Amino acid sequence: MPSCVFRSCTNYTATVRDKKNVSFHSLPKDGLMKEKWLKVIRTQRREDDWMPSTYSTVCSEHFLTSDVYLTKKNIRRLKRTAVPVIKKMWEEEITRQGQESKEKRNFSGYW
Q1: How do beta strands 68-70 and 24-26 pair?
Q2: Which letter does DSSP use for residue 62 in this model?
Q3: What is the pTM of this model?
Q4: pLDDT tens, 54-101?
Q5: Higher confidence at residue 33 or residue 15?
Q6: Distances in Å between the alpha carbon of 23 and those of 26, 61, 70, 108, 109?
Q7: CB-based contact 45:64 (threshold 8 Å)
Q8: Count of other CB atoms within 10 angstroms of residue 87
Q9: 51, 52, 62: which is closest to 23 by C-alpha?
Q10: Is the dihedral of CA 42, 88, 68, 77 positive or negative?
């Protein structure tokens, strides 16, 4: 049963059965593209030494919509140049920075 290797991603076969727009994609076999994917995955997981298994997959929610297309048989595929993106991590970072700024503004009034 495929599941997404991104930390905190809850997508796996049973949870996406009703979501027709989620698919799972194996890591590329090409060395350069595989390294690009591994860099993103390791950064997202915060594990510099993470290694994929033969069955490791990334769900389509971690790719730009422009990188995903449908074949004539309605099968979701990735463009050869597609690399996962860290959307949620980026959003969390922006939120955290905003909270830190707010805390500094609130805290600075006490000195």
Answers
A1: unpaired
A2: G
A3: 0.74
A4: 999 999 999 999 999 999 998 899 999 999 998 755 565 556 666 655
A5: 33
A6: 10, 8, 11, 48, 50
A7: no
A8: 14
A9: 62
A10: positive
